Amino acid sequence: MIAATSTSPNGISQADGQTQRLGRLWIYSDGIGTLIEIPSRRLAPVVVFLAIWLVGWSFAGFISVSAFFGSFGGPAVFTVFIGVWCSVWAGGWVATAASLLWMLVGREIAILRDGVLTKRLVLPWVGLSRSYSAEFIRDLRLNTMTGDPQISQEEGVGLPLGQYGAVAFDHDGETVYLGAALGPMAADALLEAIEAWLQQETRDA
User: Which CATH number fits domain 18-40+106-204: 2.30.29, 1.20.1050, 3.30.70, 2.60.40?
Assistant: First the structure.
């Protein structure tokens, strides 16, 4: 899958059986494929803020749920209002808890193997995976919105949402983003690792 002796300008070689690191980027290569692991970024002020906010939000939710169950004997409009508010509260709690958990222990993984790039977002006990055929990957590039070499991505929180990712490519009408926690140098290395894999896939085809 990966050429046995390929070294990038960033010093990231892709020799079989090697483990290498550049910043937050880990690259594990063997004779079968390559696994690229990107741990989440832990920004202490953001983590502390989310933790404190989550405690306060949980207390507000406890009060709201208690009020909801206590409203059944009163006006229906009040019960509906509290029910809607509880739904909003639950959505906010889940989003905040997921963001906090991601920043503490989340990992973004790209697996390059057997002509398929698999992107995984991993949290304890749960993970989301999407697979993309090398045959249909087009316009592999640095993401100019968040991967601009002139702008440090450390200014962001590195959540893998929307268009946030240091590297992007098009696949079957969809734009895919990778490397939400990477700065410019590691983004270059990620781009080069995927490019080398795509070139090898083309030669093997």
Answer: 2.30.29
Helix orientation angle between 76-105 and 44-69, rounded to the nearest 10 degrees: 160
Residues 6 or more apart in contact with residue 114 via CB below 8 angstroms: 1, 33
Closest by CA position to 133, among listed 164, 193, 182, 176:
176
Domain boundaries defined on the chain: 18-40+106-204, 44-104
Q: Which of 119, 134, 121, 180 is nearest to 155 (CA)?
A: 180
Sign of CA dihedral 39, 41, 47, 53: negative
What are the beta bridge partners of residue 118?
Answer: 111, 131
Per-residue pLDDT of the chain (205 residues; tens, 9 = 90+): 333 334 433 333 444 567 787 777 889 988 788 999 998 888 888 899 999 999 999 998 888 888 877 777 777 777 888 888 889 999 999 999 988 999 899 999 999 999 999 999 998 888 889 999 999 999 999 886 554 444 444 445 577 777 778 899 999 989 999 988 887 788 888 999 999 999 988 887 6
Rounded Cα–Cα distance for residues 75 and 205 (Å): 69
